[in-house]
Write a structure and sequence with these properties.
Layout (H helix, E strand, L loop, with lengths): L6 E10 L12 E10 L2 E7 L8 E4 L4 E4 L1 E3 L11 H8 L9 H10 L2 H17 L2 E7 L6 H11 L5 E7 L10 H16 L5 E6 L6 H13 L3 E6 L7 H7 L4 E4 L5 H8 L4 E4 L1 H7 L6 H6 L4 E3 L13 H11 L4 H8 L1 H6 L16 E4 L6 H4 L6 E6 L2 E5 L2
Parallel strand pairs: 1-4, 1-5, 6-7, 7-8, 8-9, 9-10, 10-11, 11-12, 12-13
Antiparallel strand pairs: 1-2, 2-3, 5-14, 14-15, 15-16
Helix pairs in contact: 3-4, 4-5, 5-6, 7-8, 11-12
The structure holds N-(iminomethyl)-L-glutamic acid and fe (iii) ion.
Length: 395
């Protein structure tokens, strides 16, 4: 029985546990529920009427409670912005990987303090919208010192840090891309690996080809990093196959797929992390999410927050897009934004509200979790709890 320091959230109209053993359907939903939190963890979930007595009670008045969102793909550390590029794109210009160089220039020129201030600001933006776990990539430094600095800055907001030295070839290596791949897979990785959990690469025309990505990912694996890959965002490549072959935790974007890619994902342990905010902000075709889900692929949703293709920190916006544009049901989209994100990061302590999990949750100012898609653009995070502490919201 939980005792001192514990609190109970009661009067939950609908509780999403994401554990089918605890409640109905894939979301493991319970009605009229309560959650007991102790020492930063979920200690108990069940019917409000059965809740054990604890020191402190927070009655949420029939609101819905969902696991905190797990945003498994962001490029949160950068300086400057590219609003003119966005305006030009909305006037008909296509996105190209070349825009990344502008952010690399601005990011290299910024002080570390400035980068910390900016990432903290974006971090609090996403927390206030209900994201309690976030992955952050480097990739706007592209030399040893600057990539290391970005990972150090990312440490202020998350443990889920990804080394993305292979984002694009920087201007100073324009005539020596092999030399740059050697640097990334060698000295840069050497310095970056102790600061990161993951290695990623951008497998795309204009960035790196599949063999260059293989080199970088295998070098990352040799340094003990887990694997992630940006693939098939702008066109088809064998990137999905590479990610599955190497046992990557996640392959991200997945817009241009062939049936064999879907088969490879379905028979692998690799999660397809979809980022519809990028397609929205680049006016590109959306990923074939329905085909992925129908084939049994594990799908996650993420913001891809970056100043080029998707300058949003809002997982509720991504959920609404996934329902409207990717044809996920509201329940599928919520699962993908919570348990799916956790699978993409190979975490079993987040994304679910069950005894033993981290007490990371969002009380929605809504009676039903589908309001996340039903009321797009409306701030619904009434209370955000991370590690058992209220970190945002007015509730
Ligand atoms: O995930 N695809 C590569 N990287 C980012 C875009 C970065 C940028 O435009 O600055 C993405 O969409
Ligand atoms: Fe990205």
């Amino acid at each position: 029985m939980p005792a001192q320091g514990a609190f109970v959230l009661s009067g939950i109209g609908r509780l999403v546990t994401n554990d089918p053993e605890l409640g109905a359907g894939v979301l493991g939903e319970l009605a009229d529920a309560a959650v007991v939190v102790q020492d930063g963890r979920v200690a108990w979930v069940g019917a409000s009427s059965d809740a054990p007595a604890v020191d402190r009670l927070i009655d949420v008045g029939g609101r819905a409670v969902v696991p905190g969102f797990v945003d498994a793909h962001t490029h949160l550390v950068f300086a400057g912005e590219r609003v003119e590029e966005f305006e030009a794109r909305m006037a008909g210009q296509p996105w190209s990987a070349g825009g990344i160089a502008a952010t690399v220039g601005a990011t290299r020129a910024a002080s570390k303090e400035e980068l910390i201030r900016r990432v903290e600001h974006l971090g609090s933006e996403l927390l206030s919208q209900g994201t309690t776990t976030v992955e952050v990539k480097s990739g706007y430094g592209l030399d040893v010192a600057h990539e290391v600095r970005l990972l150090e800055v990312a440490r202020t907001v998350t443990e889920e840090r990804t080394f993305l030295g292979a984002h694009v070839v920087p201007p100073e290596f324009a005539h020596d891309r092999d030399g740059y791949v050697r640097l990334v897979a060698g000295a840069m990785l050497e310095e970056a690996a102790p600061l990161a959990r993951w290695v990623d690469a951008f497998c795309e025309a204009g960035a790196f080809d599949v063999e260059e990505c293989r080199t970088v990912l295998l070098a990352g694996a040799a340094h003990g990093l887990g694997l992630r890959l940006h693939a098939n965002q702008l066109g088809w490549s064998p990137g999905i196959q590479l990610a599955c072959e190497l046992g990557a935790a996640s392959v991200d974007h997945c817009t241009h797929l062939r049936p064999a890619d879907i088969d490879a994902l379905a028979s692998s342990g690799t999660v397809a992390t979809l980022v519809p905010g990028a397609e929205f902000s680049t006016r590109s075709p959306y990923a074939p999410a329905r085909s992925l889900l129908d084939a049994g692929v594990t799908v996650a949703l993420a913001t891809d927050c970056n100043p080029g293709t998707s300058y949003t920190t809002s997982m509720p916006f991504v959920i609404a897009l996934a329902v409207r544009e990717l044809h996920l049901s509201p329940a599928e989209a919520l699962w993908a934004a919570t348990a799916g994100g956790a699978a993409s990061l190979r975490r079993n302590d987040v994304g679910r509200l069950r005894p033993g999990a981290r007490a990371d949750l969002v009380v929605l100012d809504a009676p039903h979790p589908a309001h996340l898609a039903y009321r797009p653009g409306v701030p619904l995070a009434w209370l955000v709890v991370k590690d058992g502490k209220v970190v945002a919201g007015s509730g």
